[in-house]
Amino acid sequence: MKNSIFKSFRFEIVLYSLLSLVYTLLTEALLYFGFYLVYRVVNGNKMYGQIKYGNLANRAAGNGASLNYTPNNIQNSFTGDGRIPTKGFIVFMVIIAFLVGVLLFTIYFLFLTKKFGTYLERIAGGITEIAAGNFNTRIEIDNDDEFALIAAKLNQMAGDIKQLIENERNSENTKNQLITSVAHDLRTPLTSIIGYLSLVSDKDKLTPETKERYIEIAYSKSKRLEKLIEDLFSYTKFSFGEVTMELAKLNMVKLINQLVDEFYPSFQESGLEYEFSTTIGSVYVKGDGNLLARAFANLISNAIKYGKDGKSVRIKLETIDGKVITTVTNYGRLIPEQELQNIFERFYRLEGSRSSETGGTGLGLAIAKNIINMHGGTIGVRSDFNGTVFEVVLDEQKEGMEG
């Protein structure tokens, strides 16, 4: 914030000083002019009385003798009795004029600069409130000078401190939620594993077929526990920037085709029809093939888990204005508007989704978002009667381009 010299505190001080000086000179001029008029009126009456007295004395003498009240004589008489200012009187009046001028200048200057004092009191009050911990305090800014700059910086500081405190509080809450979620998700499959293995260990009460089924369930739960631990490590690495990318030019059409083929057994097992549609033979992006494959695999896996009621999953790839846009659509249960904004948060799962069938780690979409963000892309979601659509946008890299 760089102020104009004409709006600065220094310029205002100079301006108010000059105005105070002008007002002082005008006031003193008016005062002395008033004194002069009074002096003329008073002394004029005295002269008129003396001249009238002389005329009466002449008539009384009856001889027309003059008492010599000529102008010069009158002036001499004034000098003789002190009515004409002497040098000492002039010096005295100059001193009085100077003192009165200083007093008037001080009064005018304090009056004109009163707003500065008010502004400083306001700033001091704001500092006191902020120091007391009231970070909602904001100092009113009604100018564009240095005081306004100070007030603006104090307001910014209060806002920053408040945001830091809120972030710290949110971080603490998030940490507690993370611990709770991890403990829950680790304990659930582990409890099942221990329970089924305990049953298997009782050799006398179970048939071989039952034991085999329990072992399969324990193995399935173990794989789920392994997946959770793997996702936890992955998410931690993404969050702390510990993942390095090996960038290359990737054919997105080929990448999505391969993923769809890999998920064929999952589509069949879930009774879902699937379709990958594109009008493009090939389109390229710059990225890490393994990471992007994982991100899109998480989106497809999520569509399979939550789209079973809709009986189909649609994947579409197109290019618009240099952007590669990939959508993964399922037609299962709609996602409420209030939940859409949280769907990419770690460990977030839709209400009632913590079942053995759909309850994943709660990290898949968070990991996908991190990967897409690392590639400079965006990921979003919308859910309505046309389906739940996850949309990924990446920058297209033309063939032959380097970088």
UniProtKB/TrEMBL annotation:
It is an enzyme of class 2 (transferase). Gene3D superfamilies: 1.10.287.130, 6.10.340.10, Histidine kinase-like ATPase, C-terminal domain (3.30.565.10). One of its GO terms (cellular component) is plasma membrane. Pfam families: HAMP, HATPase_c, HisKA. The keyword Kinase applies. Keywords: ATP-binding, Cell membrane, Kinase, Membrane, Nucleotide-binding, Phosphoprotein, Transferase, Transmembrane, Transmembrane helix, Two-component regulatory system. It catalyses: ATP + protein L-histidine = ADP + protein N-phospho-L-histidine. InterPro entries: HAMP_dom (IPR003660), HATPase_C_sf (IPR036890), HATPase_dom (IPR003594), His_kinase_dom (IPR005467), HisK_dim/P_dom (IPR003661), HisK_dim/P_sf (IPR036097), HssS/ArlS-like (IPR050398), Sig_transdc_His_kin-like_C (IPR004358). PANTHER family: SENSOR HISTIDINE KINASE CPXA (PTHR45528:SF1). This is histidine kinase.
